[in-house]
Amino acid sequence: MKKVATIAIALLLGVAIIASCGSSNAVEDEGTKEITEDSGLITVGFSQLGAESDWRSANTISMQSSFVPEEGYSLIYKNGQQKQTNQITAIRTFIQQEVDYIVLAPVTESGWDSVLSEARDAGIPVILVDRRVDVADKSLYSCWVGSDFELEGKKMAAWIDSYTKSINMAPSDVHIVNIQGTIGSTAQIGRSRGLANAAREHGWDLMAEVSGEFTETKGYEVMAALLERFDNINIVYCENDNEAIGAIDALEEAGKKVGSDIRNGEIMVVSFDGVNKEALDYAKEGKISCIAECNPLHGPRVKALVDALVKGETPDKFNYVDEKLFSSNEKVTEVLVDGVTYKVQDIGN
Ligand code: GYE
Prior knowledge:
Elements: E1 42-48, H1 54-66, E2 73-79, H2 84-97, E3 101-104, H3 113-121, E4 126-129, E5 143-146, H4 149-166, E6 175-180, H5 186-202, E7 205-211, H6 216-229, E8 235-238, H7 241-253, E9 268-273, H8 277-285, E10 288-293, H9 299-310, E11 318-320, E12 325-327, E13 334-337, E14 340-346
Helix pairs in contact: 1-9, 2-3, 4-5, 6-7
The structure holds beta-D-fucofuranose.
């Protein structure tokens, strides 16, 4: 382990909020943090992209509770507030602080070549979590762990295909809008691609793709605007649950009935994550017809990767997490994607 000089990190966000046990609050950016030479701990700088969703909060808490002193780690957490420039600054700070490892959850894929080269020049391994980076030289990071976002999109599209077929709906009568995530993020790229390819293949009417930035507020705004533009939407594909909750508010405010009976005027909402309690309750009630699970609990997985690097091992470069589909709708019990069958988990009461 490298020797780390004593450094006081400037107070960024005022007083740190310490997550109480069982609370859903992540610890906010550390204030003044002492890294001492003889702490004996391995120092990990974690650049988290933001706090935009319940998925993100769960992910932050998972990271913070895995890299703890009892396990031999000291974690420096930085919240990028959804801005790549903040994340680049955080990584440069970590390099100056001579941390032992950098963990990066990147907001979008492009634009990381320079700063990751700086980390490499400083001899600090970088581990990616959740989304990916698009760099020419893949050796700029040691490994990645996260979800197969395109597979999530394909599974959801296969569910929509089976469901609409089960109610004898012609493909040309399927009018979908996609409330996308943060444009240029791996989760958005994969989920949008899964839907767009299926729409082309089946002949669905994919009317609009607009970013809701993975937030409830934006999901609400975008849905309200889409209702002004179109009067025949019957499926709303939300790229995360927070957007879905916002979109459902907008739909209900406009007097629409949310549900899967789209042959009789209901508007069907589908989404991704399955982390947020409200969204899972909506799924049980049938307000969200299907959720593609996206697992945020990467802390132990990232820790296992860092543990392996500490021991001088070379972990697999890409590490995927298995995920389910949840629905309380009984029409579709399984979906077939690329020759693999995925059971739909019934979450009805
Ligand atoms: O689905 C969304 C979050 O990158 C998988 O980011 C993540 C996505 C997740 O804001 O809720």
